[in-house]
Amino acid sequence: MKSIAILGTGGVGQTLASKFLDLGHKIMLGTRNVENKLSETTKDQYGNLPFKEWFATNKGVKLGTLKEAAAFGEIILNATKGSESINALKAVEQKDLEGKILIDIANPLDFSMGMPPRLIPELCNTNSLAEEIQRTFPKTRVVKTLNTMWSGLMINPGLVNKGDHDIFVCGNDPEAKEEVKKILKSFGWSGENILDLGDISAARATEMYLPLWLRISAATNFKPMNLRIVN
Ligand SMILES: NC(=O)c1ccc[n+]([C@@H]2O[C@H](COP(=O)([O-])OP(=O)(O)OC[C@H]3O[C@@H](n4cnc5c(N)ncnc54)[C@H](OP(=O)(O)O)[C@@H]3O)[C@@H](O)[C@H]2O)c1
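Above: the input record for the complex with NAP. Below: its predicted structure, written as tokens.
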């Protein structure tokens, strides 16, 4: 059993928190303002229920500020809006990030011009959000994964092709990647379907897959889908 912090209270944060709770871990979600989060009454942009309704049915999940969550977690997940992730991480005590594994799930998307979103120019091609996080917090062990699929599939790979489809992992710290692979296996991913793409610069590729994923998803009626590598 581990203490796990998830920064981000949207659909991804909620889905992963429920799964970690089921697996017997201790969970704290981090938000900018606890009171505001609990007083939200509307569904989010994806139609998810107001946070407090989900929170009421997930007894055992703690809710704290970003700072409190980072202090709580032995492992930290970044599930914040990609354009805001660096600021969200800067809001926590830096000592609470040092030496810890940070699983980065966020994608650097810009929704300001409508749908489909664009990639943020400064965070693609020759850079990525995960690299920017690693550069900004050099003592944190950043591992990028889970960002290439819908959140429901992250924790339930069996929803598609009997679980035979692929997930990517990258990061500079080999031990951190092994720990993260164990977490993925606990979600139901088979070792054969976990593809290690190398160091953190590989996040450029997985983040830049987003525009293709969103187009495929729209062209296939938004059914859960993923990539299966064949050769
Ligand atoms: N939805 C999916 O299936 C999916 C799949 C793969 C990857 N992702 C990525 O996972 C991340 C989370 O996605 P999501 O759909 O759960 O929700 P989201 O709407 O992209 O992000 C929600 C979270 O971002 C935080 N946030 C928003 N503006 C902020 C700001 N100015 N400063 C600090 N934090 C801010 C919110 O904080 P508060 O709690 O304070 O409101 C909230 O916790 C995103 O980067 C997304 O691209 C999503």
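Notes for the reader.
Residues 8-13, 31-32, 37, 79-82, 84, 87-88, 105-107, 109, 147, 150-151 surround NAP (CB under 6 Å).
The chain has a mean pLDDT of 97.
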